[in-house]
Structure formats: C-alpha cells, structure tokens
Design goal:
The chain has about 725 residues and is mostly beta strands. Helices cover about 0% and strands about 50% of the residues. A four-stranded antiparallel beta sheet has the order 1-60-59-58, covered by helices on one side. Strands 2-3-4-5 form a four-stranded antiparallel beta sheet, with no helix packed on it.
C-alpha cells in the first residue's frame, strides 16, 4: 500500500468515527538528524499558525519549522516501498544559533497577547533565559537567572504558572525543585521540603482538586505509588503526598483534560497492555486510612524532631544543602512549610524535649557536648552548648544520643568518667548521673533505666553493666548480652525490649529474656512501638500492615486489629505526634478516616476479545493529545509489535477506539542507516497544533529521525 493511499483510508476512517474531525489530507516528512526528542509547539504570531520548535542540544541552536504554503506535490505513483516517506515541501526550517549549549525549553505567553516566549536552560554557566521575539522577528533575551548545576529531571523540567498577577517558574532537578518569581531578579530558591533522588520522569501543572489553583502532579520512575500531588497553597505548595498507593507495575502516566475534569491515564497499571483512567477521589475508610505525609530527606537517620509551637503540632527538619532548620506546621490536617532558621554546621542528629519545653537538642559532628535551642515565641534561638560554657570539653566524647518516650538522654565519656544526662519533658533542665573511676576508651552505651548503663569498650567483643557505688564510683559487671548493636535495646515504662528475628523480646534487668511478643501465623515483626505495658503497635515485615496488640489476661500480646498502611521502614510512638510511620523519604502521621486517592473510573483492554488467531497488541507508551481541537484530550498509544498508532476518545463513562493507523508497514528502519543509531525505532513524541493556520488541529509525530506531520483536511473540501 502506498503512503498516500494509507492516508486516504485513514481520513475516511476518521470521518466515519468522528464527524467533527475531518481526518488528514496527507503526510509531510522532515528529517531531524538528532531526533526531535525536545520538540514542542510555539505560537510566534498573534492569531496565526503555530510553529514547531526543536531544541538542538548538539548543534547549539533552536530549529523552527514553519508552514509556508502548499507546493506542487510529488508523483508517488511509481513508489512501491511501503516505508517511503516524501520530504515536506510546504514547510521551511529556520535555524537560530545560540552562544551557549541549550539543554531544554518551555514556552509560555507571558503578556497574554497570544505570542509565546521561550524559557530556555543553557549551560556554561547554567542559566534560565527568557527569549522574546522582537519586531524584527529575532529572538532576544529579556531576563535570566543563574540556576543550580544539578542534573535536570523529567522530559520538560521547566514549567510556568500564573499566580494572580505574578508568574512562577519551577525547575525540576534530581536534588530538588528550584522556584523563581518572574518579577524578582536574581532570586532563586529551593522548594521546601527539598527532596533528593525522586526520579521524577514527568510533571504537570494541573487543577487536580477543582479549586481553581494549579497544583503539581508528578509521575515517578517507580513501580509502586507512581503519582504524587503537591496541592497549591497560594504561591507555595503543600508537601508532596502519594495519591496512587493501589497502582503498581507502571511508570507510564499522562494527564488528560476531560469533559468531567482532569484524569490520569496509566499504561499497564495492575495489568499489562491495558490503559486505565483514574480521577481524584477518596480511598477506603479505615483506622489509619487518613494519611498525613511529609517528605523529608532521610527521616530514618534522625534528621527531624517534633514540637508544639503556639499549640500546633510542628516538625523541624535539618536542611541538607545548608545549615538551617526548616519548620513545618500542621494546618487543616496537612503539613505546610512555615519558616527557616539558621543553625550550626555539621549536625548529625536532632531531638526535641517534649511538647512543653519547646526545646531542641543537637548532636554535632566530632563534638562531645550537646547543643540546645529553644522557641522564644518568634524563632528558634541559635544553638548553644548545654552546661557551663567555661568548661573545657575538647576531650569529651559523645557515646549515644537517643529518646525513650518522654525522656531524651545521652551518654558522654569525660576522661575517666561516663556521664548520663536525662532530660524529661516535664523538667526545665537535664539531670546528670556520673559514673566515675573508669579506665579505657568506650565506643557505645545504652541507658537501662535508673542509674544503670550497658556499655561497650572500643575493640571489645563483650559488653558490661555499669552501675554506681559509694561516692559515685562506677562498677562494671560483665554482661551476657552478645549483640554488638546495643542501641537496639529500647526502654519504655521501665520495661526493656529487644526486637530481632521477627519477634520482640522482653528483658529483665540482667538482659535475660523473660517473655516474647510475636504475631499470629506466618507474620513477623519489622518494627515495634509500645504504647503502655499492656498495649503496642507492631509493623509487619512487609512494611504495609500494622497490628494493634493488647495483652490478654495471661500476659500474652494478641492482635486485636490489622490495618493496611503505606510502605514504612519503622514506626514509633512520638511524644508529640503519636503513632508515626517512617519511610526512607517521608514520615506519615495516620489517623482514622479516608485520604484523597486516585480511583479507577474506566479502563481499555485492546486484547479483551482477542481470539486464538489474533495477534495481540503490545502497547509501549502513551500520548495525551487533543486531536480534534475541542479542548478535550484523547489518549494515543503505540502497538510496538504491529507498528500501529491507536487513538482512544471519550465515550459515555469510558473510552473507545476512535482511529488507528500504521506508522510503517514493517519493523525495519526505513532509511538505510546504521541500526546502532541512537534514535528510537518507535514513535516517541506526538503533538496536536494548528500548523497551517486553518483553525483545524494538525498532528505531529516524531519517529526514528523524522518528524511526521499530518495536516488536517479542510471539511469543505
């Protein structure tokens, strides 16, 4: 079949399936040596046709493809090769050289005049530059900002939104998101909380909840919970929350404008070769069904603490890029960034002293003393050393720094003494207990309650009990505890616990096992959080289920409920927040109720009615594209096996196939080039735009090293 005959049949099919959309008149082909991976439509004239903009990252230029009118056409009657593609004769290419290598571009109409400006990221040095077309049709820079040299993430790292009368620019990087106020020169800030290694592959500005504010929706390179939502809050955003916990096995997602509001389409979510359509709704109601997540940088390593400020639950996080404290306050059931305050450098860990003292304690690298900061009503004071500032602490060594319930404690070696400091949340200052007259160099210690420690000397394979005798003199007794990680021992309500091997052991004062807590059946314990002597929570080994345990009359802990929770690495009973779930990049303070989640509205399975002799479709990607220009997006996909493009459009409450056609009749590369060429052998970019100015949407497809342009038919012709 010859190419133009294919298009003629395609146009007939389009008319039959969508009376408003007239189909396509023919195919235009433009060669793009380096591939059109960074291609987007741009409006260069008011009320006129759109052009195609391709960022040439290798040649340091911007390429503009513009429609210039119909040519005389080509005689294709003798063409037998089904893969033959005639070169476009009614488009011109204009190359705009750049002084520095471009990386990526976005377009946005700043002045609302129907003409787009270009937001371009360039290197050496890394800058964001805004280009505007002048009266001479030349693109000239009008603004610029220096931005971080971090690796850009997502296919479109720069997105722009209008907030009232201002413009806000966001730049996606692998170690955070940079924010720029268009009206503020030279100022670039990081979005808080600043997250790293998110592996964001796409993001969009989208009014997901229908409140007329543009939120951020991001898709991540993960097979679980791939979608997160940053709800807009004025010119800021609430911390990202997962809204796709039930969605697995996909990282291909696209957002759609529909007749009933925004939807998100997934390829292969929970079932291969299907397209699933989700919208924002509510998840299942349960005891821990209402999530309140706050993304943090490595929360499992002790870089945060909880306090109450002005009666509100608050979380304080150590900044990773510079020495600051980031404060988040709970408002309307969600965490919101509040303020940042300066702090010491090289802080290793942070603890709070309950909710009443409003005091933070800090462990500093290579320091033998604890530092403190308190809330004075307006800010956290700059940290100062606890105790007498005149005492020389150069030889002190901090062995441990931890929190058991309402007690924050630490152990310091000071020459031949070990000093235990315990600060209870009800007290105004810590109490100290000195264990004097000790020889040797110690490397670890754990508080066992009262005036007892379990200690381990450097290079020693054994541990010892350390108690106080007359005059405060220390007494050491060899312990039978064999574990080298003595910090795993936890104290709660005068009871010692040790979690290992999927169970929790209760220990006596000699660290002998006196009882054991375990889950029913094949379930094992990953993390344990006692509430009282008779009640506790246990996180299952899969990290996705919590058991509520209560002691029965015989003294055995039994499961009274088992609930599903987002994947967590550990749990704790925080003195301010209560039950807290901790993962590698977020903390979650759950409560009873339901959380906003993506819920399935419909799905398409192209192989649903496939017979025995039917060649099943193998779907490879998704494109969101408004083919007919009605403001409602269709979803297009590629059958990699048969080289078909398939387009689905709204139909009732779901979606049905509107049109399909072959890009090539076989899987061979049609241009005789080396098969090792870096360009994708499958379609990788699709755009709908009015390229010829006839007010009808045209279609652009990037495939191999070609740009394929399907110009729309005139319905009157």
């Amino acid at each position: 079949m010859k190419p133009l005959l294919i298009l003629f049949a395609l146009a007939i099919a389009a008319v039959a399936s969508a009376s408003v959309f007239p189909g396509w008149q023919g195919l235009r082909v433009i060669k793009s040596d380096n591939g059109a991976y960074k291609m987007l439509p741009i409006r260069e004239k008011k009320g006129g046709a759109s052009s195609l903009l391709v960022v040439e990252t290798r040649q340091s230029r911007l390429d503009f493809y513009r429609y210039v009118g119909k040519g005389e056409g080509l005689d294709l009657s003798s063409v037998e090769n089904p893969n033959y593609l005639p070169m476009a004769e009614d488009f011109e290419k204009v190359e705009v050289p750049l002084s520095r290598l471009p990386q990526v571009a976005s377009v946005y109409d700043i002045e609302g005049d129907g003409i787009d400006e270009i937001f371009l990221v360039q290197t050496d040095p890394r800058k964001l530059i805004v280009l505007k077309k002048n009266k001479d049709d030349d693109w000239k820079p009008i603004k610029e900002w220096e931005i971080a040299d971090s690796e850009l993430s997502t296919h479109q790292p720069v997105i722009v939104r209008r907030v009232k009368k201002d413009l806000q620019i966001l730049i996606s990087m692998n170690d955070g998101v940079q924010m720029i106020d268009y009206g503020t020169p030279d100022e670039v800030v990081w979005m808080q909380p600043r997250e790293r290694d998110i592996e964001r592959n796409r993001w969009w500005f989208l009014d997901l909840d229908g409140d007329d504010d543009l939120d951020i929706v991001e898709a991540r390179n993960t097979v679980t919970a791939p979608i997160r939502w940053y709800e807009a809050e004025g010119d800021q955003f609430r911390p990202a929350v997962s809204i796709s916990e039930e969605i697995t096995n996909t990282n291909v997602a696209r957002t759609l404008r529909t007749s009933t509001g925004p939807k998100i389409a997934f390829l292969g979510a929970n079932q291969a070769n299907t397209i699933s359509f989700y919208e924002l709704g509510l998840g299942d109601e349960s005891r821990f069904g209402k999530r309140n997540l706050l993304p943090l940088s490595q929360p499992d390593l002790g870089g945060w603490a909880s306090v109450k400020l002005e009666g509100k639950e608050s979380i304080v996080e150590l900044g990773r890029s510079k020495p600051i404290l980031n404060v988040y306050v709970k408002r309307d059931g969600f965490w919101s960034f509040d303020k940042s305050f300066p702090v010491l450098q090289d802080i290793k860990a942070i603890k709070s002293v309950g909710d009443k003292a409003k005091t933070l304690l800090f462990q500093v690298e290579d320091e033998g003393q604890i530092y403190s900061s308190h809330w004075d009503g307006a800010r956290f004071t700059f940290p100062k050393r606890l105790g007498d500032a005149g005492i020389e602490t150069g030889e002190w060594k901090l062995l441990s720094f931890d929190q058991f319930g309402s007690d924050t404690w630490w152990v310091t070696q000071r020459g031949k003494s070990l000093v235990l400091s315990v600060w209870n949340s009800k007290e105004k200052e810590p109490r100290e207990v000195e264990f004097a007259g000790l020889d040797g160099d110690y490397e670890n210690a754990v508080w066992l309650g009262g005036e007892r420690l379990l200690v381990k000397k450097k290079f020693s394979k054994t541990t010892s009990f350390c108690t106080r005798g007359e005059g405060g003199k220390a007494s050491l007794t060899t312990s039978r505890f064999k574990g080298s990680e003595i910090g795993r021992i936890r104290l709660h309500d005068d009871t010692l616990y040790l979690a290992e091997g999927g169970v929790v052991q209760k220990l006596d004062q000699n660290l002998e096992v006196i009882d054991q807590i375990m889950l029913d059946g094949d379930y094992s314990i990953r993390s344990f959080a006692p509430i009282s002597k008779r009640e506790a929570y246990a996180l299952e080994s899969d990290g996705e289920h919590i058991h509520h345990l209560e002691m029965d009359k015989s003294g055995i802990f039994e499961t009274v409920s088992r609930e599903v929770v987002p994947y967590s690495m550990s749990i704790s009973m925080d003195p301010v927040l209560g039950l807290t779930l901790i993962s590698s990049n977020a903390i979650n303070v759950p409560s009873s109720g339901r959380s906003r989640q993506l819920v399935l509205s419909s799905a398409v399975d192209p192989n649903e009615h496939a017979g025995r002799d039917y060649e099943k479709k193998t779907l490879g990607t998704l494109f969101d594209v408004d083919i007919d220009g009605d403001g409602i997006d269709e979803i297009a996909t590629v059958d990699y096996g048969q080289r078909d493009i398939i387009v689905y459009g709204e139909s009732g409450d779901g979606y049905e196939q509107v049109i399909s056609w072959k890009v090539y009749d076989d899987g061979k590369y049609p241009y005789g080039q080396d098969s090792g060429n870096r360009n994708s052998v499958n379609p990788y970019r699709m755009i709908a735009a009015d390229l010829d100015g006839d007010a009808i949407q045209d279609l652009v497809l990037a495939s191999h090293d070609r740009i394929l342009i399907y110009l729309a038919r005139d319905p009157e012709s």
